[in-house]
Specification:
By secondary structure, this protein is an alpha/beta fold. The chain is 39% helix and 19% strand. The C terminus is likely disordered.
């Protein structure tokens, strides 16, 4: 896989934060950057009088990003690319040869392009490589790496990436498994079932298995395990990662439908990004129908 990071550029605060985050990573790991801006001209006629002006504005945006990048990290090679079509399709194509795609989390809300039309969701769903989603404001003093697990193969990929990230930067790794306990009326309707206790014991095993072997591979890595027994997974991850340097999640979990590319937990987390968040796409997983 090519050693370069693709960064989506659109002029927003999230876009600027994503470029800064990507530059820091590229400098540490000796990677190059490709800054991509998509001109969505699918609805335009080639004869539309503002067509060339829109292209020029897009190129000007990229040139400003390149100048900013050169000032922030002079040693990092930064290429700029103006592409056509939707942001999702442009970055998907670019992701095929990327080590990682980095985009900004949306900093607006609802009808002006926020959660209901968040482009980060589209890009994460379409990308062939891991995607990092960066909030507009990143806490400079944040520490630690948080990763969500649920026993799925995707979550094991997320743990692998998160452990490498934590070890590289000397951070502690917090591995989180969260679920909401069965409603009392469900438990009460099943006399002596011990449903809640059974689920709890099974998830303790899943959590332990998710971290098995990490200390052998990373002897200096401090691994914390957290089992949240009465919280929705997305809320638990967002709350716990509020002061973390990085959150890592899998694109899908064990409860996902085979036809869905992005799971409900990943979707909910990306609508409330608490810190820089990587959605893994380490290798493709085949699911049973």
């Amino acid at each position: 896989m090519s050693k370069r990071i693709v960064v989506g550029i659109n002029g927003s605060a999230g876009s600027e934060a994503s470029l800064t985050w990507a530059l820091q990573r590229a400098a540490r790991q000796k990677l190059s950057i490709v800054a991509v801006h998509a001109v969505d001209d699918r609805w335009m006629s080639p004869d539309f009088q503002y067509h060339e002006l829109i292209r020029e504005a897009g190129m000007e945006l990229l040139q400003k990003a390149q100048a900013s990048a050169n000032a922030q990290a002079p040693g990092v090679e930064v290429e700029i690319q103006l592409r056509h079509g939707s942001a999702g399709s442009a970055l998907r194509e670019a992701s095929k040869e990327a080590w990682m795609v980095v985009v900004g989390a949306h900093d607006r809300h609802w009808l002006d392009g926020g959660p209901m039309t968040d482009r980060a969701l589209q890009i994460v769903s379409a990308s062939d490589s891991p995607v990092a989603v960066i909030p507009p404001a990143v806490g400079a003093g944040n520490k630690g790496v948080v990763v969500g697990v649920d026993g799925s193969e995707e979550s094991l990929q997320a743990v692998s990436l998160a452990a490498a990230e934590a070890d590289r930067e000397g951070d502690e790794l917090t591995v989180v498994l969260a679920f909401r306990s069965p409603a009392r009326w469900v438990e009460n309707a099943m006399p002596s079932s011990g449903l809640a206790e059974t689920i709890l014991e099974e998830d303790r095993i899943v959590l332990a298995e998710s971290v098995a072997g990490l200390t052998d591979k990373y002897p200096d890595l401090v691994v914390n395990q957290r089992l949240e027994t009465d919280t929705e997974p997305a809320k638990a991850l967002v709350d716990i990662a509020g002061e973390a340097r990085l959150l890592v999640i899998g694109s899908r979990g064990r409860g996902g439908f085979s036809r869905l590319v992005l799971g409900s937990t990943a979707h909910a987390v990306l609508l409330n990004v608490p810190c820089p968040t990587i959605v893994t796409r380490v290798h493709k997983i085949k699911h049973e129908a």
